[in-house]
UniProtKB/TrEMBL annotation:
Function: Stabilizes TBP binding to an archaeal box-A promoter. Also responsible for recruiting RNA polymerase II to the pre-initiation complex (DNA-TBP-TFIIB).
Keyword Iron-sulfur: no
GO terms under cellular component: transcription preinitiation complex
UniProtKB keywords: Metal-binding, Repeat, Transcription, Transcription regulation, Zinc, Zinc-finger
InterPro entries: Cyclin-like_dom, Cyclin-like_sf, TFIIB, TFIIB_arc, TFIIB_CS, TFIIB_cyclin, Znf_TFIIB
Membrane-spanning residues: none
Chain's gene name: tfb
UniProt cross-references to PANTHER family, sorted A to Z: TRANSCRIPTION INITIATION FACTOR IIB, TRANSCRIPTION INITIATION FACTOR IIB-RELATED
Sequence repeat extents: 149-232, 243-324
Protein name: Transcription initiation factor IIB
Binding, Zn(2+): C36, C39, C55, C58
Coiled coil stretches, renumbered: none
TFIIB-type domain location: 30-63
HAMAP family: TF2B_arch
Length: 332
């Protein structure tokens, strides 16, 4: 009898402990989720400029005189901000060491702007040399440094944004880690990574444009691109002709109305299935040319050909196909 009472008492104690834990967890969750004491709303907005936390619903100032975790200095332009900032740049995949190593400046001046003596200049030059050697200690780092430099050079020549360069650098790093480079040139894999990154970011460049700034041939770029995409299992959608229209229209100095008309021509062509099996660059160039004629902003086929880097024959052929698709859509 005594043993059964002890078991019952122990069971009740466990239930009470579990209930107590649940109550403590609920109270902790309530404490972690701040709410307005006036209306009970949880939509609180932090005003860092005034050091206050304000309820977005009723306007009650919930907290004031908060600690400012920002810098103690003020800057009114970018150069002043760079001068006063005491932290380095964020890490980036666009540098072989991700920007974590030390850079020794080339100016032979001290912290106060005074010129160094000849002995100190020789010392700093030796330090720069050894620093450069330590930054690229093995073949993999030297490989990365060369490839990322190529990606940055080509992206600058093509006017691609930083997010494309970052993505291309990540793709190249993955190819290097998966040992895809043996038997292929560094420049070829770097160019393929940039071509893939541009398409993934919806800012595509044609293969001819990529080839014009690359150090390798077009066939090698296409072959390496297919290999990298297959091995790394990259998900890349087919290029959309509409993605080329804004750049072509901007280079030709066309209005927004022409750009909008070109997009409409391409949409009608897709409905009629004209775009299947056709080069997206050729379709985009023909749409821009047709739209300029329809909006009385006449440009020549030669001008469009130079901007899109395709032949005038291709523009004429696609131009007639687009107009035929337009007529089919307008038929009752």
């Amino acid at each position: 009898m005594t043993e059964s009472v002890r078991r019952f008492t122990t069971g009740n104690a466990r239930v009470r402990n579990e209930n107590t834990k649940d109550t403590e967890q609920t109270d902790t969750e309530r404490e972690q989720t701040p709410s307005c004491p006036e209306c009970g709303s949880e939509s609180l907005v932090a005003d860092s400029e005034h050091g206050e936390t304000v309820c977005d619903d009723c306007g009650l100032v919930v907290e004031e005189d908060e600690i400012d975790h920002g810098p103690e200095w003020r800057a009114f332009n970018s150069s002043e901000k760079d001068q006063k900032s005491r932290v380095g740049a964020p890490t980036t995949n666009m540098m072989h060491d991700k920007g974590l190593s030390t850079n020794i400046g080339w100016q032979n001046k001290d912290a106060y702007g005074r010129s160094l003596s000849s002995r100190q200049r020789e010392k700093m030059q030796r330090l720069r040399t050894w620093n450069e050697r330590f930054r690229t200690r093995d073949s993999k780092e030297r490989n990365l440094k060369q490839a990322l430099g190529e990606i940055d050079r080509m992206a600058s020549a093509l006017g691609l944004p930083d997010n494309v360069r970052e993505t291309a650098s990540v793709i190249y790093r993955r190819a290097l880690d998966d040992d895809l480079l043996p038997g292929r040139s560094i420049e070829g894999v770097a160019t393929s990574a940039l071509y893939a990154a541009a398409r993934m970011a919806d800012t595509p460049r044609s293969l001819d444009e990529i080839t014009s700034v690359s150090r390798v041939e077009k066939d090698e770029i296409a072959r390496t691109y297919r290999y990298v995409v297959r091995e790394l299992k990259l998900e890349i959608k087919p290029a959309d002709p509409e993605q080329y229209v804004p750049r072509f229209a901007s280079d030709l100095g066309l209005s927004d109305e022409s750009e909008r008309r070109a997009r409409q021509l391409l949409k009608n062509a897709k409905e009629q299935g004209v775009h299947s099996g056709k080069s997206p660059v050729g379709l985009a160039a023909a749409a821009v040319y047709a739209a300029s004629l329809l909006t009385n902003e006449k440009v020549t086929q030669n001008e469009v050909s130079e901007v899109a880097n395709i032949s005038e024959v291709t523009i004429r052929n696609r131009y007639h196909e687009l107009l035929e698709a337009e007529e089919q859509v307008q038929l009752p």
